[in-house]
Amino acid sequence: APTESGMRRGIANHEFFLVYQPQFELATGKVIGVEALLRWQHPTRGLIHPSLFIPLAEKSGLINQLTELVLEQALGQMAKWRDKDITMSINVSPTTVVDLDMPEKLDAMTAALEIAPEKIVIELTETALMENVSLYMDILTRLRMKRFNLSIDDFGTGYSSMQQLVRVPFNELKIDQSFVRQLIKDEECRAVAQMSVSLAHGLNMQVVAEGIEDQETFDWLKELGCEFGQGFHMARPAPAHEIEELYLS
Ligand code: G
Ligand code: G
Ligand code: MN
Ligand code: NA
């Protein structure tokens, strides 16, 4: 398993990098954004997936450094894609939003790079967020006031109360792939997806379905009024230059 000292060395040696997964408008098939996903290219262990190192980073406090590195790479890439009509979604742990004073930091970084804040989407997982909503309310509100977008990731896997959902200043909801991937086979997953879409729209949020793996699922979600989607059926995460060649030129 990865260790804290291994991660420190990996950060110093620039072994962490981002891949990008396109997001599509279901009605038109157009690419409207990308999600930045972190990877660790270890010199001897090979490619390490975030599920193996993010929890360790969160426990050890290295998550702040990782988030800084992610912001630098993602926003640096976005500056190169300044003339493209796409958004950039970035996954962050809620604690780093507070620790790094994210509204100020993002504001300074996007201003310096001449990136419109409307083009940046900050994704927070439902579980991490709802465990301590009141702690995050002020900082999330400040992010929205600066016109950054806020997205609830992995929706359906946590335990948001309706009361919390009404209060949080999010403008996007991502249906977790555990529901999307079973849609066609499983009536209950379809019910969760359907409910998520209508709940989101009722609260003025747009919806992204994650984990679309076949055309049937794509069609079903489009029919349901889900605006956006990601998934291996359309595109896998890939390095920036590949994304650019395949989808942005
Ligand atoms: O692509 P994928 O298998 O990479 O992502 C696995 C998980 O890791 C997802 O839940 C995703 O939210 C998380 N993740 C990916 N990149 C980052 C990142 O830069 N920061 C944080 N905190 N989580 C990430
Ligand atoms: O941040 P989040 O937990 O949503 O991370 C998205 C993860 O889902 C990434 O690891 C990405 O590689 C993965 N992913 C994206 N689309 C698909 C898909 O269609 N099928 C599967 N199995 N995984 C997907
Ligand atoms: Mn995500
Ligand atoms: Na997710």
Task: Write out key terms for the chains shown.
249 residues; alpha/beta; TIM Barrel; eight-stranded mixed β-barrel; 12 helices; binds guanosine-5'-monophosphate; binds manganese (II) ion; binds sodium ion
Briefly characterize the structure.
This protein is of the alpha/beta class and 249 residues long.
Written account of the structure:
Keywords: Hydrolase, Phosphoprotein. This protein is of the alpha/beta class and 249 residues long. The chain has a single domain, classed as TIM Barrel (Alpha-Beta Barrel), CATH 3.20.20.450. The chain is 47% helix and 21% strand. It is built from twelve helices and nine strands. β1 (16-25) and β2 (31-42) form a beta hairpin. The protein starts with a helix and ends with a helix. The model has no long low-confidence stretch (mean pLDDT 96). The structure holds guanosine-5'-monophosphate (2 copies), manganese (II) ion and sodium ion.
